[in-house]
Prior knowledge:
By secondary structure, the chain is mainly α. The chain has one domain (30-451). Helix content is 64%, strand content 4%. It has helices spanning 32-45, 61-78, 89-111, 115-141, 145-172, 212-232, 236-255, 259-275, 279-299, 303-312, 318-325, 327-336, 358-391, 395-414, 424-443, 448-451, and strands at 13-17, 20-23, 50-51, 186-187, 195-196, 203-204. Strands 1-2 form a two-stranded antiparallel ribbon. It has a two-stranded antiparallel ribbon with strand order 3-4. β1 (13-17) and β2 form a beta hairpin. The longest helix has 34 residues, at 358-391. The radius of gyration is 22 Å and the shape is globular. 48% of the residues are buried. Pfam families: Wzy_C (PF04932). InterPro entries: O-antigen_ligase-rel_domated (IPR007016), WaaL-like (IPR051533). It is a multi-pass membrane protein. Keywords: Membrane, Transmembrane, Transmembrane helix.
Amino acid sequence: MTSTALHPVDLEPTLLDERTYGTRRRLTRIDAAGLLSLMVFLLYALPAQLIVPELTYAGRPALLVAFALWCWWLLARLNRRLVMLGPQPMRWVVLFYLLATLLSYLGGTLRGLPIMESNAQNFTLILTVEFLGVVLMAADGIPNWQRLNGVLRVYIWGGGFMAVVAFIQLISKVNIAAYIWLPGTAIHGEIADFQNRGDSGLFRVAGTATHYIEFATVMAMAVPFAIHFARFAPSKRARAAAAVIAVLMTAAIPIAISRTGVIALITAVVVMFIAAWNWRTRYNVMLVGIAVIGAFSVLKPGLLGTIKSMFTSFDEDPSISGRTDDYTIVGHYFAQRPWLGRGPGTLIPDLYLILDNQWLLQLVTMGIIGVAAFAALHLVSLTLAWIALKRAERPEDKHLCAALISTIVISMLVSATFDSLAFTTFSFTLALCCGISGAVWRFTHPARAIRTSSVRWFAE
């Protein structure tokens, strides 16, 4: 067994109960990492519009698994034999985020809401609970580096599958996402179709995501992890497969024809370039980037020019002017309720406007406290991943922590370009990465009681 598959810390004893010890590598039938892997698989493999009948988008199969994770975490806190040992900073930031949401919910209720806004508040509260369940169980429940790598392998394979779907859509001009189905589910709403962009017959694809921007962004967030396994997977075959997935996901970003996706990819490369990569990796990434650009120049003429014009023609882009025109309305709503906002989810696009900026949307719907909670979620995750990067001794652990940092930075930036939390594939990917930041902080902590802290298993 290689050093990548087996981490030395995983063999250290952990206190299970009074005078009862085990190791963090105990094999169990069901654990948090297994359910997180299932959630990630369902999140990426199934179209975002596929839900359990009679439920809203909170009823996506992946999100129902997330709700089960929330329930499991609560049950673990209520039972002495199941309770997590040691501190975990992510618990405090989750508590802050939940309290901010509940206070805003109460403020919205007190001002009196029409039925549509009341339903939207309830829906957002359910989504928040599911979101936080993923954060908590990833932070507290993943037992060791080996199981963490298992979750991340499912993540990059899921991203690779979504990229393949997008390329099939591009080549065949058939939206195969509409044919992906799971027994017991039904399509709610419309699956993202092809959208023309530019004057050369180009069109955008979204894979299994809700929107083209979301698709490009989640691809960019997954690329650093694919590169991680291309460097550190235990076998040559696994490294080669991860490298292919990394190239596929990188190449999939331009076909979404999204400014946000390009910004996200550049952000990921810059962070990894500075924080993690040696010069050999930097050269390899640059060569792959040049090869991808060259391939698109030959196979899809006009695509790179269209993307370039999106950055050079800001003054003529109606999507940019539409965003800036909304700032006056944001100021109006903010002045009415600056601290708690109108209520989570109450700025309904069909009634008011589409606000393509999650930071401003937080300000309007949840006020200053809501923005502070959203910022705290990112900053604490960033800090924990950075601390873990500094503590880690093995190159692969450091690289993984740097990949986490890149995803959090991406989220902070792209949330200023679209209403990111409204798109559940993106938002639950963010939840997973925030939770993993708490997990790697725990894994690298010098105190054994904290390193070995984790939720107990069903199989005890």
